[in-house]
Amino acid sequence: MAVAMSIFYFSINDSIEEQIAAQAMDIAQMTSARADVINAYKEKNPADKLQPIASEIQRKTHAAFVVFLDMKGFRYSHPRPDLIGKRFTGGDEGPALMGDSYTSKTVGISGPSIRAFVPVYNFKQEQVGAVAVGFFQPDINEIMAKIYDIFYTVIPVGLITVVVLSLLLSNNIKNTLFGMEPREIATLLKEREATLESVREGIIAIDKDCRVTVVNQSAKKFFNPDVNLIGESIHKVLPESRLPIVMENRQAEFDQPMMINNKAIITNRIPMIVNGEVVGALATFRDLTDVNNLAEELTGVKKIVNALRAKTHEFMNKMHVVSGLIQLGDYEEAQKYIINLTNKEQSLIGFIVDNIKNPAAAGLLVGKSSEAEELNIDFQVDKNSNLHFLPEHFNENAFAVVLGNLVENAFQAVAEVPPQRKKVEVLITQNDQHITLQVKDYGTGIDESVIEKIFNPGITTKKTGSGYGLSNLYSRVQMAQGSVDFNTNENGTTFKITIPNEINN
């Protein structure tokens, strides 16, 4: 405001002086061209006629003075009659007596003034003198004092208004920024960037206009490196993201499988809500291969451990029978029991070893056989079964997840049926094109209410189930570019899994 007032002061001063000089020049030019003025210069005593003319012009124009000069610079008129006939003061009249028209500022008898000089010519265009019209130089302080009087009224009101509005704006900004100071915001921003880049999950966020605002390095790996994602519409860069739907519904979606550029991922999507208003949405995702590998390692190991536990338990029970028969002295019966047990074990294990060439797969089948015996379930491995190898995209862990879940579900399906229906059949075959896993139970079938969503995460018909067994199975089969088929009715359920020996990358 101080700078503005200084500029205003000098601008006003210059403007006023220019206007005064222009006004003085206009009056002087009109005066020099008057016929009565030209005729007065012909008189023997020009002052007698020029003094009344000068007084009249001075009165009408409010000029400080109108002075007529002869060619030597002596006055023919002046507001003070006693100065008539005396030389003009100020020293700036010379050029006018030589035919020039101009304005100047100088100090005369009456004080500092702005004056205009114009030569006077007779009708023959001969210079006979000059006229000087002057206005006292205004006191800029007096002019500014009047302006200040206005400012003194306006400025306090303006300042109060500015302060009030500034406080309102400041509070609004602070509320928008959750009361944080700039340094806190900068720190939070750095922490946010570090967090985004440190997590292994991909992160993509959009604003309420569905434009991408955040993409971390883990997310960029799923896209073409030449594609600029920031600022682009999510409909363009990832049309299947469902983030706009999440914003519209205000409902989060967790553990959802999807594809990004032919890569299977599992994603979580949540709406971002601030003060009750949806301002965007955010998705985190991770390569389903990583998730499945971890799940398969955990689940597969668990299934094999459970199978071995069942086998150990079964072995101990049989050893107790042998021990009891020996203690009773019934050696012949003990011998028959051992021979019968040996033949049975050799028959099953021999068949599995001969036909199932992968040790982990063979071990899982042997363990499940023992578990079935504990549960009084007739567990049969079809004599047409064969498995030559497991491809890299469907390794031991994947096999354990898929077959283990199918067999466990089959065991639970026949848990409460009559003894004659407690039967589970497994068929494993492999040809030049694919591997087929088929598990059939003779339970009561799958409830119609869950058939449509049986492979969704969290869906289960078991009292203690997690709902992720078939979901993990389905995801792993998808990753292996295989297929899942099943049919179910009141007489039981059959699942058929087909896995190609080779997949297209």
CATH architecture of the largest domain: 2-Layer Sandwich
Tell me the helix content.
40-55%
Main sheet summary: 5 strands, antiparallel
- The number of helical elements comes to 15
Under CATH at level 1, the class of the largest domain stands as: Alpha Beta
Rounded mean pLDDT is 83
The CATH homologous superfamily of the largest domain is called: Histidine kinase-like ATPase, C-terminal domain
Number of strands: 14
Spatial ordering of strands, largest sheet: 6-5-9-8-7
The CATH topology of the largest domain comes to Heat Shock Protein 90
Order of helices and strands: HHHEHEEEHHEEHHHEEEHHHEHEEHHEE
Number of domains: 4
Shape: rod-shaped
Contiguous runs where pLDDT drops below 50 for at least 5 residues:
none
Helix and strand content put the structural class at alpha+beta
Termini Cα gap: 71 Å
Proportion in β-strands: 15-25%
Q: Which value, in Å, is the CA radius of gyration?
A: 54 Å
Written description of the protein model:
With 505 residues, this protein is an alpha+beta fold. It folds into four domains: 2-138, PAS domain (Beta-Lactamase); 141-168; 182-287, PAS domain (Beta-Lactamase, 2-Layer Sandwich), CATH 3.30.450.20; 291-500, Heat Shock Protein 90 (2-Layer Sandwich), CATH 3.30.565. It has helices spanning 2-32, 35-40, 47-61, 94-97, 140-176, 182-198, 217-220, 234-237, 243-249, 288-327, 331-355, 359-374, 396-413, 448-451, 469-479; strands at 65-69, 102-108, 111-121, 127-136, 202-207, 212-215, 253-260, 263-274, 277-287, 378-381, 423-430, 434-441, 483-489, 492-500. It has a five-stranded antiparallel beta sheet. A five-stranded mixed beta sheet has the order 10-11-12-14-13, covered by helices on one side. A four-stranded antiparallel beta sheet has the order 1-4-3-2. Helix 10 (288-327) runs antiparallel to helix 11. It is rod-shaped. The two termini are 71 Å apart. The relative contact order is 0.05.
